[in-house]
Amino acid sequence: MDRIFLGSAFLHAMLLLAAFGSGLFGGVAEGSWQGLHDRLGPAATMTGVLVNTLVIASIGSREAWIRRVERDAGLPGRFHSRAIRNRRRVAPLAVGSLGLLAMASWLGFQTGSSSPGSPWSLAHLGLASVAIGYQGASLAVFTLAILGQKAMTRALTAEVDRLRPPPLISTDPDPAAPPSVAPPADRLPTV
Question: Are 147 and 2 in contact (CB under 8 A)?
């Protein structure tokens, strides 16, 4: 899941920058650059939706897993409280990213292929600039949060493994002898 997120986040960042650059060049020189921007803009928006939903799903599912493992192992809940902090840190950024992408896309559709100096076009350019900066900061926070939760799940797994009882060792004096046909001591019938 982490590789999928990192790959899609990189693709999203590249598409955002390519759409922004082609939009700037399309405003200066009409033609193929504008057509490229009209295709890259929606692609960047849809990968942004993918990345933000992947983040929300990954953080939420890991938080639920950590809560369940801590509850089953009888641990006090310090890993779960850290997972809740991560979710509370990441969720507003993801929702804000989706909102900025939606507004920039809406302004882009309003602009269409109109003149580059129109108020819609300038508003789209300004909001797209803000969205790219916000997305860059959000992607950095998302990456750190997901990698931090991955390390937290490894630490929780190690702690649960440490708390497990050691495996039972056979008390048969002769290891080559066939196993006993008597039922185990915990299953002996009571009289």
Answer: yes
What integer best gives the mean pLDDT of the chain? Answer: 83
Residue 140's contacts (CB-CB under 8 Å, 6 or more residues apart) are none
Q: Look-up: residue for tokens 């598409």? A: 15
Where do we find the tokens 């033609």?
31
Rounded Cα distance between 139 and 98, Å, is 12
Q: What is the CB neighbour count within 10 angstroms for residue 2?
A: 13
**Cβ atoms of 58 and 1 closer than 8 Å:** yes
In whole angstroms, what is the distance from residue 8 CA to residue 175 CA?
Answer: 55
CA nearest neighbour of 64 among 86, 43, 49, 45: 86
> How far is C-alpha 51 from the geometric centre of its chain's CA atoms?
7
C-alpha 67/C-alpha 78 separation (Å) is: 10
pTM for this prediction:
0.73
| Percent of the chain residues topping a pLDDT of 70 | 80
pLDDT in tens, 83-124: 999 999 999 999 999 999 999 988 888 876 556 667 778 888
pLDDT on residue 61: 92
Helix axis angle, 2-28 to 32-73, nearest 10°:
160
